[in-house]
Structures are given as structure tokens and as C-alpha cells.
Amino acid sequence: MADHEDSTSPPVESMMEKISEKIHGHDSSSSDSDNEKSSPSAFKAKVYRIFGREKPVHKVLGGGKPADVVLWRNKKISAGVLGGATAVWILFELLEYHLLTLVCHCSILALAILFLWSNATTFINKAPPHIPEVHIPEDPVLQFASALRIEINRGFALLRNIASGKDLKKFLSVC
């Protein structure tokens, strides 16, 4: 039992020595090469990266704004993302709110705000809000309806063939 404890302690000590050497920036071993001593930038790059990583964390996360948000470099945006995610979690998990209900309530609220805003502009002598007219073209809607009708008819024909009992293998695979 004592032999087992002695056999595991030297690797642990050597690992701790390596980590402390990386952190403190000095190396007491005599096996250093001349290249590491001559290029201090390569030595500094390894000193400041934990566990001897090749790339910084910002680059590993893809760089740019998403990495800045994850690493909290822009604190306002990161706090906003965290607050928004927390609000969504509270709505959907704790309050058991549903997405369709949320979308409907938001659209009702937006409609009520626009209605009140357009009516309040007459009392405060401001221009009413510009609400654009929306038109759906007829041709794409008809093409979509026609394609949908064709696919539904194909599905009904397939179900009819399966239910007629002509192909037992297909019937059993559907069941």
C-alpha cells in the first residue's frame, strides 16, 4: 500500500513544478535550449497561456463580437444578453408561458400602442405614425396553394394504397 503511494507522488510533483514554472516565468532545469532563451516573445506567449495552449481563448471562440460577449469584454451587451436569456427562461420555464401565447400578446400590445399613438397625436399636435400598407401578391400564393394541393393528393393516394391491403410489407412498416 505504501509502495503505491510513493509511485504516484513523483509525477504529481513534477506536474506541479511544471505548472509553477510556467506561471512564474523562470525555469530551473538545465535542459533549456538556446532557441527559447533567444526568442523572448515565444517564451512570453507560453507563459501567459494556461496549460500551454497554442491560441488565445478569444480566437478559439471565433473572435469578433460573439467572442467579446462570451468573454465579457463589452459588459453592457453581455449583461443584456444574460438578462434577456434569464427573462426568456423565467417566462417559459418558471411561469410556463407558451411561445404562441407570447407572440399573440406581443402583437396585441403593439397594435394597442399604435392605436393609442395615432389617436394621441391629434391632442399633442404631432404627425401620426407612418404605417405602411402591406399587399400580398396573388400569383405566389396561388402557386403555393397548388403545390400544397398536389402534395396532399399524393399523400392521400399513398394512404389509400396502404389501406387497400395490396402490399402487406408496406402496411406492416407503416404500423
Helix and strand sequence = HHHHHHHHH
How much strand content do the residues show?
A: under 5%
* Secondary structure tally, helices: 9
User: What gap, in angstroms, lies between the N and C termini?
Assistant: 61 Å
Largest sheet: none
Fraction of residues in helices?
Answer: 55-70%
Which secondary-structure class do the elements indicate? mainly alpha
What do the pLDDT scores average to?
A: 80
CA radius of gyration:
34 Å
Number of strands: 0
What is the molecular shape? flat
Q: Unreliable stretches, pLDDT < 50, 5 or more residues?
A: 27-38
Defining key terms:
175 residues, mainly alpha, flat
Quick overview of this protein structure:
With 175 residues, the chain is mainly alpha-helical. The chain has nine helices and no strands.
Overview of the molecule:
This protein has 175 residues and is mainly alpha-helical. Among the domains are: 1-54, no CATH class; 61-97. Helices cover 70% and strands 0% of the residues. It has nine helices and no strands. The protein has helices spanning 2-24, 34-38, 40-47, 57-60, 64-70, 75-94, 99-120, 138-163, 168-174. The longest helix is centred in the last third of the chain and has 26 residues, at 138-163. The protein is flat. The model is unreliable at 27-38 (pLDDT under 50). One of its GO terms (cellular component) is endoplasmic reticulum membrane. It is found in: Endoplasmic reticulum membrane. The chain crosses the membrane at residues 98-117. Pfam families: Reticulon. Keywords: Endoplasmic reticulum, Membrane, Transmembrane, Transmembrane helix.
